[in-house]
Specification:
The complex is a heterodimer. Chain A is mainly alpha-helical. Helices cover 59% and strands 3% of the residues of chain A. Chain A has 26 helices and 4 strands. In chain A, the strands form 2 sheets. Chain A has a two-stranded antiparallel sheet. Chain A has a two-stranded antiparallel sheet with strand order 3-4. The longest helix of chain A is centred in the N-terminal third of the chain and has 25 residues. In chain B, 33% of the residues lie in helices and 13% in strands. In chain B, helix 6 crosses helix 14 and helix 8 packs antiparallel against helix 9. Chain B is globular, with a radius of gyration of 21 Å. The chains are: A mainly alpha, B alpha/beta. Chains A and B meet through helix 6, helix 13, helix 21, helix 22 and helix 23 of A and helix 5, strand 7, helix 8 and helix 9 of B.
């Protein structure tokens, strides 16, 4: 039964904290189910400022010193804000007593990825996840999509805020035009998937539908926040996926997003990504179809989707072959060594480790988000860096965490004889912990 | 074309395989580097067709002027090189740079991810071929026992272009102290039976040994003890740092012969600019990387060919936000001491409305794989039959590239 509980905690959680496997052992499936629908915000995230506070920083800088001041802000306070957010989010994951919920939020945050690689986005990425993703993660996919697309971080990251209908009043006056970036990624990445049956004309039509989704200015009273600006909106009817959408200002996007959110291709696309994330790099068609069916039957109810993922036979039968991405590896190690012994792990060091291992928080390399298969993470250099990081962490922790104690709370129910022996026979506590963190079982889930 | 004389060639031509040394040798002393420009470089912005009558009108604010420090460098009376590309300008003058324009894979949709898949796999459909064309080319070079010696991926993972049956090494500017011998041996033993970590760790350990041998402490020093988080910042000069180290590794007699690097920053949907802006910044980082690679290679530069290519180009007209959206054909660069350059190879399709692909993009008139195939044959000496069968199986029936890229 303990092995079953360890499987649940490892596969669906963020790596066991001391006592977590024991707590799950009476009812492993129930341990996961109890986290579905829990909406409370982790304590660490409550101190993170709201989007509007961050946007006010930009507005104030611009009012005082124009674009030069904004760029200066980007390099200084804005960047510091990003680092604080990244630290808070990492801490929330390490401390969480609802690790499946944190996995679920992170999955959707990555699905609707914005990236701090764009400096203007850096100070918004944390608030975006908390305000646009987290509140909808157990709700309907359509609401989540709608919230993600309208958030300033997304409007900036995918260049929507300045996209102008060529025949709109604003377009006529200053010869401005469409930017199709968000429209394309919305179809390719967020909803239908690249083979989902749309073409270039659908991209253009959706870009027209989205014109006007922008950020407000001071006169409009919502400076830096979402604002639908009618005079940027392309007039006339549009046709998306063969469906005619009558001219209706902001309601066009509501109709279009619902069309996309409930589309069967979206169900397949989301189902495949979930199965790949939680079960296997190459999930079976049975898994994908089971999840897609739930998505269709429940009109994208994400709590039902979470239950469906947990109820997949493959979630329990398929060996733990998923490689932990760097973020989840670092978090798992910290969860293993924190607790009453109290190694807090300074945020800067944690963030440096994440960057070195290739996954700085909120900094995915592209709008597709972080990749999610073994070969995306484990090459020769990736394997070496993980080993080096494991050793560096172990050397800091060894003074107050004994390898056998950590082993008992993490890998004991699931370790191979080779790993068990390697940890036991290690010449020092540091080597033992490093072998534990680097072991094939700890690297996987 | 002089046949490539190699130790392996001599060995095969010589006596018995029983005398083969334990170390394997790549079948060439030539160096070949591919730089993948991820995110769709605007080919018209990098290599401007100044002589096209529609250029200034269609490009609007993105058009470069001709000449002067802010303007394009006149290449041949028709094309002009972006002013940020100062190293490439030197290479052009030395006749060590050739440009391929209006070139493209056979991919015609506009997804970055599928476009890069086809660029790197070399196939006719996204996800149609499992590995990368450069790995398949390596298969013809390495003898299979020591692929690390032949191919090098730059970065923490192996990009698709180098994935496949032939093992490759990897290098990334290191950021952590190395592993001490006893621990590495214990971990190596623990990984021995692991299908993912086993081969990766073994290859990583070998690559690290070589790297430390060739680069000394230099690589390790760069980031050690840094402690400070620098993750999401676009580290300017990061390509130059990696490229310089890669040049040295390639130059070492025991080092790899083939390497793949990548650099992003090309997805200029807004604020693309002309002589200054996001595109100029990306081009500058790229150009600095080229200079570092050349300096790292030193004397071996004369035996080197570099190809820099992107998944597709961008719209000819600016979009509504001072940038460009995803397009079709782009430009590619072929340079190095072994290149017979000073020429833009193109069947120029024109920029006027009726000449565009779908009335928006530069029309592709050259399959990028054709000149690459010539390079693999002429520079690395890979047999035509292997190129047709293994490296570019989807291209076997297509006409050959007729330009000369190698002196």
């Amino acid at each position: 039964m303990t092995a079953h509980a360890a499987h649940a905690v490892v596969r669906f959680g963020l790596g066991p904290r001391p006592g977590e496997i024991a707590a799950a052992s009476a009812d492993p499936r129930g341990w996961v189910f109890a986290q579905i629908g829990r909406t409370n915000i982790p304590a660490a995230l409550e101190t993170m400022p709201a989007t509007r506070v961050r946007q006010a920083m930009i507005a104030q800088a611009r009012a005082q010193g124009g674009n030069a001041a904004v760029e200066r802000l980007h390099r200084q306070e804005w960047r510091a804000a990003y680092l604080r957010d990244a630290g808070l989010r990492t801490r929330a994951m390490i401390e969480s007593d609802a690790p499946f919920r944190e996995r679920w939020v992170a999955f959707w945050s990555n699905h609707f990825s914005v990236s701090a690689i764009r400096p203007r986005v850096a100070g918004l990425a944390g608030p975006y996840e908390r305000e646009a993703i987290r509140p909808h993660a157990w709700g309907s996919f359509a609401d989540l999509l709608s919230a993600a697309i309208r958030h300033p971080a997304m409007l900036i990251y995918l260049d929507q805020a300045g996209s102008v209908g060529p025949n709109s009043p604003a377009g006529q006056r200053r010869n401005a035009g469409l930017n199709e970036n968000l429209a394309r990624e919305l179809l390719e990445l967020h909803t239908l998937g690249v083979d989902g049956g749309y073409d270039q004309s659908d991209v253009r039509e959706l870009a027209k539908i989205l014109t006007g989704h922008s950020l407000g200015n001071r006169e409009e009273g919502v400076e830096g926040e979402f604002f639908f600006r009618n005079r940027m909106h392309e007039p006339g009817a549009k046709t998306l996926l063969g469906v005619r959408i009558r001219e209706a200002g902001p309601d066009e996007a509501i109709q279009a997003l619902r069309l996309l959110a409930f589309h069967p291709a979206t169900a397949r696309h989301v189902a495949r990504k979930l199965a790949r994330h939680f079960v296997s790099d190459a999930p079976s068609e049975i898994c994908v179809e089971a999840l897609a069916r739930t998505f269709r039957d429940t009109r994208g109810d994400l709590s039902e989707m979470a239950r469906a993922v947990v109820n997949l036979e493959d979630s329990w039968e398929t060996p733990r072959g998923k490689i932990r991405a760097p973020n989840d590896l670092v978090v798992a190690a910290m969860r293993a060594v924190t607790g009453d012994a109290g190694y807090a792990g300074e945020p800067e060091r944690l963030l440096a480790a994440l960057a070195t291992l290739g996954q700085a928080p909120f900094a995915a390399p592209s709008p597709a988000g972080w990749p999610d298969t073994a070969r995306d993470w484990i090459g020769p250099e990736g394997a070496m860096r993980r080993a080096e990081w494991a050793l560096a962490l172990a050397e800091r922790v060894a003074a107050f965490r004994h390898p056998q104690a950590v082993f008992a709370e993490t890998l004991d129910p699931i370790a191979s004889p080779a790993t068990r022996e390697a940890v036991r026979r290690a010449p020092s506590a540091a080597d033992g912990l490093a072998l534990l963190f680097a072991s094939p079982e700890f690297q996987r889930r | 074309m002089i046949p490539v004389l190699s130790r392996r060639g001599l060995m095969l031509a010589g006596t018995a395989a029983a005398f083969a040394p334990r170390l394997a040798f790549a079948a060439t002393e030539r160096r070949f580097v591919v730089i993948v420009l991820r995110g769709a470089m605007d080919g018209i912005g990098a290599v401007a067709p100044l002589g096209d009558p529609a250029y200034a009108r269609m490009r609007g604010d993105l058009a470069l002027s001709a000449g002067g420090p802010e303007g394009a460098f006149d290449l041949d009376g028709f094309y002009g090189l972006h002013p940020a590309l100062t190293t490439l300008r030197e290479l052009w003058t030395a006749k060590n740079l050739a440009i391929l324009h209006a070139a493209h894979t056979s991919y015609r949709a506009r997804s970055h991810f599928d476009g890069q898949d086809q660029l790197e796999s070399g196939g006719d459909t996204p996800r149609g071929l499992p590995g990368g064309w450069l790995n398949r080319a390596l298969g013809a070079l390495a003898d299979g026992r020591s692929g690390t010696r032949a191919g090098l991926a730059v970065g923490q993972t192996v990009p698709l272009i180098l994935r496949g049956a032939t093992e490759v090494g990897a290098y990334a500017p290191p950021a952590l102290p190395g592993l001490e011998g006893d621990f590495a041996a214990r971990l190596g033993a623990l990984y021995a039976a692991d299908p993912v970590f086993g081969p990766a760790f073994a290859a990583g350990a070998r690559a690290q040994a070589l790297t430390e041998d060739v680069l000394g402490d230099e690589g390790r020093r760069t980031a050690m003890g840094r402690g400070r988080f620098d993750g999401a910042r676009r580290a300017s000069g990061r390509l130059a740092q990696a490229a310089g180290a890669v040049g040295k590794l390639l130059a070492d007699p025991r080092g790899p012969r083939v390497a793949a690097l990548e650099v992003g920053g090309w997805d200029t949907h807004n604020a693309q600019g002309a002589s200054a802006g996001r595109l100029a910044a990306a081009l500058r980082e790229f150009d600095e990387g080229i200079a570092a690679l050349r300096d790292g290679l030193g004397a071996e530069w004369r035996r080197t060919v570099v190809v820099a290519m992107t998944e597709f180009g961008r719209t000819v007209r600016p979009n509504g936000t001072g940038g460009t959206d995803h397009g079709a054909a782009s430009a590619a660069f072929v340079f190095g001491g072994a290149v017979a350059g000073g020429k833009v190879h193109a069947d120029w399709p024109g920029l006027a409305e009726r000449e565009l692909h779908e009335n928006r993009d530069l029309r592709p008139t050259m399959d990028l794989r054709a000149p690459i195939k010539r390079l693999l044959a002429d520079h690395l000496g890979i047999a035509r039959a292997i190129l047709d069968r293994d490296v570019f199986p989807d291209l076997a029936a297509a006409p050959a590239f007729r330009g000369d890229l190698i002196g």
